[in-house]
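#lab-general

N.A. 3:47 PM
ok so I finally got the sequence cleaned up, no stray characters, all 188 residues accounted for. can someone with queue access submit it? mine expired

B.Y. 3:52 PM
send it over

N.A. 3:53 PM
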Amino acid sequence: MAGISAAASGQDVYPNRAVHITVPFTPGTGADILARVLGPRLAERWKSAVVVENRVGATGNIGTEYVAKAAPDGYTLLFTATSFGTNPALVRTLPFDPVKSFAPVILAATSSVAVIVNHQVPAKSLREFIALARGSRSDFAGTWGLTMTATELVAARITGAKLFTGSNGSVRTSAGLVPKEVAVKSSV
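B.Y. 4:20 PM
back already:
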């Protein structure tokens, strides 16, 4: 036989206790939804509890730091998104090393980038929105992260205008599109 089972070798079978999946973003974001869909399926397959918990803040760095400092035993997992790859370029000092502190396990999803406006904004295309931004003296609300940073850089280059001010999370910004609290959102 080429292999030996963990039980036969005297090792514990993984997992033998609850696995915690940390999502470093607000509840309701894409990463959170995916983790909560996958959690019960992993629990069923593993015959062990899987707990999904949000540790938000600093564009994902608070939850990411928490996982980086956890015991490297496979019982605390990070379910992250694009900011994991972009934060090292945007933040001078991180409390973790994104390469040495983590081992990739799976690519769970990919997505596209979109700029979304409230229906009251008179722009019906990106071209119209850029023209509107050129003539605007007000900021639009948004969430800090890769998509907003990229949109902000493009807008600054094209219009010379600052488009975004900070907001408390992607889901809150999305919800603000409907009651006209938020005019535009950059999203994946």
